[in-house]
Amino acid sequence: MSEEKCNVSIGYLLNKAARMTRYHLEGQLTEIGLTVQQFAVIRDIDRYNKCEEKEEYLTPALIAKRLGFNRPTITGVLERLETSGWITRETNPKDRRSQFIILTDKAGEKLPLLETCSKTTMNDTLKGLSENEISDLSRYLNIIIKNIEKN
Questions:
Q1: What is the fold of 3-150?
Q2: What are the residue ranges spanned by the domains of the chain?
Q3: Best CA proximity match to 78, nearest among 67, 7, 133
Q4: Single pTM value for the model
Q5: What secondary structure does DSSP assign to 119-143, as a single string?
Q6: End-to-end CA distance of the chain
Q7: Fewer CB within 10 Å, N side or C side of the chain?
Q8: Phi, psi of 104, deg, nearest 5
Q9: pLDDT tens for residues 6-54?
Q10: Which residue blocks in 31-130 are alpha helix, DSSP H?
């Protein structure tokens, strides 16, 4: 197989798998009133809060960096999450231009349901793969991501 044909095929498959996985998750999240981007932000805030080695408080800039979103996108997502009661913002006492992002009780109550949606999507997506194959896939995808991040 030629290198060009292989790259096109892999790129197409990566893109199609990502789109289909997103569509599957989106179908479940719509019933809860969230988009996939909003879910990603809520999940990231929750995971960051559980991290024992926090470098700093969670700000919009840090969320954008962690998720690979641009600042205007994260600003819009956070505005919609705040309007719908999923997050609150607190002004950074050291820098009034900056805000800390905090999950509300509503978000805390819905986290188990959100995790169920995510697990269902991943189980359906990875059905038919062995644990070793899933581990290999994860390793390969991380290599691809690191390669792209370098550029």
A1: Arc Repressor Mutant, subunit A (1.10.10)
A2: 3-150
A3: 67
A4: 0.83
A5: HHHHHHHHTT--HHHHHHHHHHHHH
A6: 26
A7: C
A8: -85, 175
A9: 555 888 999 999 999 999 999 999 999 999 999 999 999 999 988 767 6
A10: 36-50, 60-67, 71-83, 105-126
